Description:
binds 2-oxoglutaric acid; Aldolase_TIM; Isopropylmalate synthase
Amino acid sequence: MKIYKDYEDLPKIKLPLGQEVSISDSTIRDGAQMPGIVMKSQQKFQIYNYLHKIGIEKLETFVYNDRDRKAIKLMMDQGYEFPEITGWARANPADIDMVLNIDGIEETGILMSVSDPHIFDKMGLPTREAAEEKYLTALQYAVDHGLRTRAHIEDMTRADNYDFTYPLVKKIMDIDPDCTIRICDTIGFGIPFVGVDEPFGMPSIVQYLKDELNVKNIETHCHDDFGLAVANSIAGYWHGANWSNVTFLGIGERAGNAEMEKLLLFLARRIEGFDKYNLECLVEFAKFMEREIGIRVPRNKSVVGNNVFAHESGIHSAGVIKNPFTYEPYPPEIVGGKRIFLIGDSSGIEVLRYKVQETLNELMDVEIEIGKDDKRLRAIQAEIQKLYNDEKRVSCISDEEVMAYVKKYFMFNPMVSKDMHRKEDEENGDEDSDSNDTLGNTKARMHDLVD
Ligand SMILES: CC(=O)SCCNC(=O)CCNC(=O)[C@H](O)C(C)(C)COP(=O)(O)OP(=O)(O)OC[C@H]1O[C@@H](n2cnc3c(N)ncnc32)[C@H](O)[C@@H]1OP(=O)(O)O
Ligand SMILES: O=C(O)CCC(=O)C(=O)O
């Protein structure tokens, strides 16, 4: 028999191939391409600092303008070992020269667009062979100038991989056997399942690169147009990729990229022996992105949304009050979050009891328990239910309102147990005093506190 009653009871899973996996960041590159976003160099620098806190191994940045270069200088001046700052270039020597002009950058990505619409329509090249020549020339140029390389195989999930991309990758490997091959699921057509063949199947692409072409370093870069970006990133790891390129909050082109925070959570909480990342600043990082970059974080967003540890409905909140494991996937503090209970139209008596008791205890600076059948509690519940049944109220009951109900129903009918009366009487040396006196004292104290 197995008993799963606590987080520690749940088994962790293993990546089947057991390879070391890492995360590279594209928040200040693809993320910054998000329409309507303008990231200042200072903000890129602050993002870099958050990535450092988490323990992200690598990031990429453009080097095209003064703002990019200013951000790079700020980041480099920190002297951190990680994230390593790497460059990004199109497949031409001029772009690679721009990367080479930055002191301290030792690795660059090179954009190699492989689908036919990219080769023929976007770039206006006459043939696939011309594209191949352009890419290999750029790669050779980077290698000759001492850079480590990453080939960003753009739009690979809509390309003729057997006839064009794989032969190209073979030539890339001949030039630089250490080149990281980035599988770009540029428009999000990748499918995370085994048995889906070219060009969509992430498992089959990774396996082919690894087993047939001996690629040592395989990275995924997945877009979320079909909502599969994180699943595709994990599928990459599952079948042998050792890098995943992601953005924080999934910001980026169109529907964005695979979300870093989801991947981090998956690795840290579900995969065996994975404790190299620190997730405690994730909620704070999301608040920073909201405040400084203007990214609105949906309240139900995994990991960092306001609702991730908020409980309103009767059955859920009653469960969580008894044992958070019932309806919380992991303890809030893991990601720097906080549990909250809310009173709303789906609440039952237990969460109301909990909130009222908490409010009352705070107000009176004592610890007393309220029973579910307390008449005053039931009266508050009836008032709240009426609000919702009248169909005018469309929001939760705020903490201030709970406080007002507590004052209304408990201030003049304070609930103090017989035992408590006796104890207070004994402490006061008031042997003759009856419970009404004690209630009076308590009432007076509450007035002092409230007024
Ligand atoms: C899928 C992605 O996310 S790719 C990255 C997208 N991000 C960005 O574009 C943001 C950064 N880009 C920029 O700052 C500018 O576009 C620059 C500096 C790169 C180029 O600026 P411009 O010279 O004004 O070119 P413009 O933006 O109009 O067009 C893009 C050029 O890149 C070329 N290009 C596209 N893919 C590739 C490639 N794989 N290799 C080489 N060149 C490429 C296009 O063919 C086009 O050049 P062309 O007009 O000579 O055909
Ligand atoms: O640099 C890359 O990752 C390739 C371009 C890209 O962002 C993409 O394919 O989505």
